[in-house]
Specification:
two-stranded antiparallel ribbon, about 30% helix, Rossmann fold, four-stranded parallel beta sheet, alpha/beta, disordered N terminus, globular
């Protein structure tokens, strides 16, 4: 919130992808940016790692940059295409969500928010969004 004006500031987010499946990195990042901009969020960081999803986040080259921005409060949310880019198991993804929540930050997967905006990988069904997130409306171009 801007104390002088009493208005809420725009949400600052980090866009992150871990690409190991032949997706085109620039297309993935452009799709994430479109989704963020459709929510009127400010993209403070947009990075991707080109490593196997099996590589621990701490061992990825650019994940620590995202982590540091969350810890510093520079971003209030993390936008990914697939939640499994952060952790391969449901328990691991819940751990990430909990870690973010402790820092008053959120995680949004475009796969879960708008399955038509990003095809699911490996025929998996998208994970449900936590109830605390606002409702999203799907369009052909992404989220609105």
């Amino acid at each position: 919130m801007d104390a002088a004006s009493g208005r809420l500031g725009r949400v600052r987010v980090a866009l992150y992808a871990c690409i190991d499946d032949g997706r085109e990195p620039l297309e993935v990042m452009a799709a994430l940016r479109r989704c963020a901009e459709a929510r009127d969020w400010v993209v403070a960081l947009a990075v991707y790692d080109s490593v196997s999803l099996a590589v621990a986040r701490s061992d990825r080259k650019l994940w620590p940059v995202v982590e540091n921005m969350v810890v510093a409060g520079t971003v209030g949310g993390l936008l990914v295409q697939f939640a499994d880019e952060l952790a391969p198991t449901a328990e691991g993804r819940e751990e990430v969500r909990g870690w973010l929540a402790q820092r008053q930050a959120f995680l949004l997967s475009t796969e879960a928010a708008c399955p038509t905006a990003s095809a699911t990988r490996d025929g998996r069904r998208p994970e449900a969004l936590p109830a605390a997130l606002p409702n999203f409306r799907c369009t052909r171009g992404g989220l609105t």
